[in-house]
Automatic annotation (TrEMBL):
Species annotation: Aneurinibacillus migulanus
Protein name: Pyridoxamine 5'-phosphate oxidase
NCBIfam families tied to this protein: PRK06733.1
InterPro entries, per database record: Pyridox_Oxase_N, Split_barrel_FMN-bd
Top-rank taxon: Bacteria
Domain Pyridoxamine 5'-phosphate oxidase N-terminal: 10-94
Length: 151
């Protein structure tokens, strides 16, 4: 099912975006004006109209958003791909209670679109694993997600 459009997240997408999840973030490249795409996982939907995510404070993503607030977050869920577009801003230059220097970005959702091509569905959603110390990764993930939930 393609091109289903809404102005906010469905309750089902809201629930799916309450845990760490693989997503593709597109920003406008500050230097070229073209697309800049990154994979991120520290994503949290605060409500049906707001998504927060955390990125390294030195990331080009932060500079891009400060220069042009338009963003698109692509999420694989429920057998489809959702394109969530909106305007982003830096909510906190440095997140508290997190050992890394992370910036908190908040996105005000303007449109949610099912962009899966007609007559198909995602059979297996993308899966990722952390390649460093599993306990350290779990501890850090929990700290970041907790900070996102309390933002």
């Amino acid at each position: 099912m393609a091109e289903v459009v809404a102005q906010s997240l469905s309750q089902e997408l809201l629930a799916l975006l309450q845990d760490e999840r693989f997503a593709m973030l597109s920003t406008v490249n500050r230097q070229s004006g073209g697309p800049y795409v990154s994979a991120i996982s520290w994503v949290y939907a605060s409500n049906v109209s707001t998504i927060c995510f955390a990125v390294n404070s030195k990331s080009v993503i932060v500079e891009n958003i400060q220069h042009n607030s338009h963003v698109v977050l692509n999420v694989f869920a429920r057998g489809s791909v959702y394109s969530i577009s909106g305007h982003a801003h830096v909510k906190a230059e440095r997140m508290e209670n997190v050992p890394l220097k992370l910036t908190l970005i908040e996105v005000m959702i303007e449109e949610v679109r099912d962009v899966m091509f007609y007559g198909s569905r995602i059979a297996v959603e993308p899966h990722f694993e952390k390649t460093y110390d599993a306990r350290a990764a779990e501890k850090l993930d929990n700290q970041v997600m907790e900070a996102l939930k309390n933002a």
